[in-house]
Design goal:
CATH topology of the domain at 298-487: Rossmann fold
CATH class of the domain at 298-487: Alpha Beta
Strand content: 15-25%
Radius of gyration: 27 Å
CATH architecture of the domain at 298-487: 3-Layer(aba) Sandwich
Strand order of the largest sheet: 5-6-7-3-8-9
Distance between the termini: 42 Å
Helix content: 25-40%
Shape: globular
């Protein structure tokens, strides 16, 4: 349970990237020892920025951040940095410390047990990049836990985890005795353990602090918006009545002109009392992914594949042909080889799978490595539009980008500078402009605001080309037409 002891406080903190990209405006909030806090807000609102300020990797423009004396902080980031992917597990964990840890191996064993990753083999010498996306997510969590911090920061921890992994993580967080701050777009996951919410408003750039879980927050926000709308409606009625009287008396002589002036002043006073109604996070517009035309017959033929059990490759025979308007779900636990399979299929590098000539493949990778991080959003989408066989149409490109909330300065921002959620939206905008015949999607809900997911699900549901999907989010999959499921674990 949370105590009254303050472990960290933001006091009027302001931050911006450069001189034209304000993120936080005089933000203030307090963290208590033992509390379990969620940070929520729209993609790009600045949630990860708050983590950077807490850890000290970013410096405030104005205001102060006060950390309790001796308070230690550790963070599990969204993804493992690229420069650490070639490290061994031992080296990866040693990097979490500024000094040499001589008993690192038993400590690694302990945290791998906590995150449900310890198997029958010693993992200390295994290379990080050989782990699946879900296993890497567990390594990230373990890298924070091994530091035994007073404040544990988790940036999108349920992403890439299978159902068993999410259940294990949830139980751990419920029983964890120290302060936890979590960024996530998974409302059900957050509701299972949160006792407070910091809501980052992308419009005001303020942080609103609430008690309770996200369900409580939605209820409180809805009640607040309703109350503000009712107040404004009542004020508008009174303002109009006084303006009508002012207009009526203004054309009459004597003291009535003074009454008209007074009515006008009262109307102005009431207009000052009008409140700015709290705006809700924006949702992407409904969209469709056009399928490549003039393609008939077989699109892909799969006769076999390799799966991994206890990290050992096992051959699996299949007999599967995909045609237009067929949707295939590939399921299985973390580490069985789903992402490797999709990569080989997308690149047409599998010896037991062939893609028909002339097929455009739209490939959504969970690490967004199909995007060039040095390109601006405009350059990336323009290149994709040309690859889709269309002439460069700037108006259409900007319109598609805007439907995914990529507007204004973001269109000329380098992709590497975007939040992970915004990178996902750029990837979807690219699929629209590519007009693929075959969609290959590896965890397309990864780091995407949950408000957008029903819109994305409907777009995939109506896609007229062939589709291969991997997702660990059953609520999302349930909204999509699936014609066949390939269960790799069986």
């Amino acid at each position: 349970m949370a105590s009254n002891e303050t472990v960290l406080r933001f006091d009027g903190v302001t931050f911006e990237y450069g001189h034209n990209k304000p993120i936080l405006d005089e933000v203030s909030f307090t963290l208590r020892r033992g509390s379990k806090i969620t940070i929520m807000g729209q993609n790009g609102a600045g949630k990860s920025t708050i983590f950077g300020l807490i850890t000290g990797t970013l410096d405030v423009e104005d205001g102060t951040i006060i950390r309790g004396q001796g308070v230690t902080i550790a963070i599990a980031k969204q993804v493992i940095p690229r420069d650490q992917m070639d490290l061994t597990v031992r080296e990866f964990f040693q990097n979490c410390f500024t000094k040499k840890i001589y008993d690192i191996d038993p400590r690694i064993d302990d945290v791998l047990e906590v995150v449900n990753l310890k198997g029958h083999e010693k993992l200390h010498d295994r290379i990080v990049k050989t782990f699946s996306g879900g296993q890497q997510a567990r390594l990230l969590l373990a890298s924070a836990l091994i530091q035994e911090p007073d404040i544990l920061l988790l940036d999108e921890p349920p992403n890439n985890l299978d159902r068993a992994g999410i259940e294990h993580l949830t139980d751990f967080l419920i029983n964890y005795q120290k302060t936890i701050v979590v960024i996530s777009h998974d409302a059900d996951f957050l509701n299972s353990f949160s006792d407070g919410v910091l809501y980052l408003d992308i419009y005001t750039r303020k942080v609103e602090q609430y008690v309770g879980n996200y369900k409580n927050v939605l209820r409180d926000i809805s009640a607040r918006v309703e109350k503000e709308n009712m107040k404004n409606a009542q004020l508008a009625k009174e303002i109009q009545a006084k303006k009508d009287k002012s207009n009526e008396f203004a054309h009459k002589g004597g003291r009535l002109r003074l009454v008209a002036k007074r009515m006008k002043e009262l109307a102005a006073d009431l207009e000052e009392e009008m409140v700015d109604v709290r705006k809700e996070d924006r949702t992407i517009r409904a969209f469709k992914i056009p399928a490549q035309e003039d393609i008939n017959g077989e699109i892909m033929n799969i006769s076999g594949m390799t799966v991994y059990k206890s990290h050992k490759p096992t051959h699996k025979k299949v007999a599967m042909k995909l045609k237009k308007n067929q949707h295939l779900l590939i399921a299985g636990p973390n580490g069985i080889g789903k992402s490797t399979l999709l990569q080989n299929l997308a690149r047409n590098e599998s010896p037991e799978a062939t893609i028909a000539p002339g097929i455009r493949v739209g490939y959504y990778r969970q690490d967004f490595s199909t995007l060039n991080f040095d390109h601006t959003v405009y350059e990336s989408l323009a290149e994709t539009m040309l690859a889709g066989g269309s002439k460069l149409d700037e108006h259409h490109l900007r319109s598609v980008a805007a439907s995914f909330l990529i507007t204004g300065e973001y269109i000329q921002t380098k992709i590497g500078s975007l939040s992970e959620g915004q990178k996902g939206l750029v990837a979807f905008a690219g699929l629209v402009l590519l007009r693929p015949c075959l969609l290959i999607l590896d965890e397309p809900t990864y780091l995407i605001n949950f408000r957008h997911l029903p819109v994305i699900a409907e777009a995939l549901n109506t896609f007229q080309g062939a589709m291969i999907l991997v997702s660990h989010v059953p609520e999302f999959v349930a909204k999509i037409r699936i014609d066949e499921t390939l269960e790799l674990g069986k």
